[in-house]
Amino acid sequence: MMSARQRPSSSPTPPEATNPDAAPAFTRKYAGPNLGFFFPFNLPLTPEALAVRILKNLAHFALFYTLVLWVGLSISLVPQRRTSLFILLLLTLVTTSFLILLRLTPNTMFIHGAADKAIVLFALGVVTTVALILTDAGIHLLLTLAIGIPVVLAHAIFWRDDLHSASSYSIVEEASAGETAIPLVDGHIVDV
User: Fold this and answer.
1) In a domain, 103, yes or no
2) Looking at the chain, which terminus has fewer C-beta neighbours within 10 angstroms, N or C?
3) Spatial distance between the Cα atoms of 63 and 23, rounded to a whole number of angstroms
């Protein structure tokens, strides 16, 4: 009588079968994505780095810093000084209209040649300060600046700008350098 014999396997034996001391598959080290923790605040190492960081952050976040101070002043004016709040809102409307007009007409010499943006913004700031002082809201302005400026400076000192490094701006800068360019997801620029 003939017995059935199993043919030997042509594939190599798995390593788990040959080494009983090997770790199971689920306990092996998985080289997954690098999910490092990013903390956006630190102290610069040198005074020069501190000065550069403050100037860079003040230039980069100037609009946000202004909005924080403006909102703080508006909130402090709401309960008691409604006339001062109305004047502040009116002068904010004039300033915003001027800046939008500058943005909409970049090649017009009438607006750009007649008034420099920095001079107009400084004059509107002086007019706003004088108007707030004349309407007895000067103490609100001083308290807002006394509380807001240290907060703004602390943010400008401690915020490190690694999120907006050269790698994240390079695509935008390369795209704006060309006539018409579209940045792709992989970071490649395609001219149209």
Assistant:
1) yes
2) N
3) 57
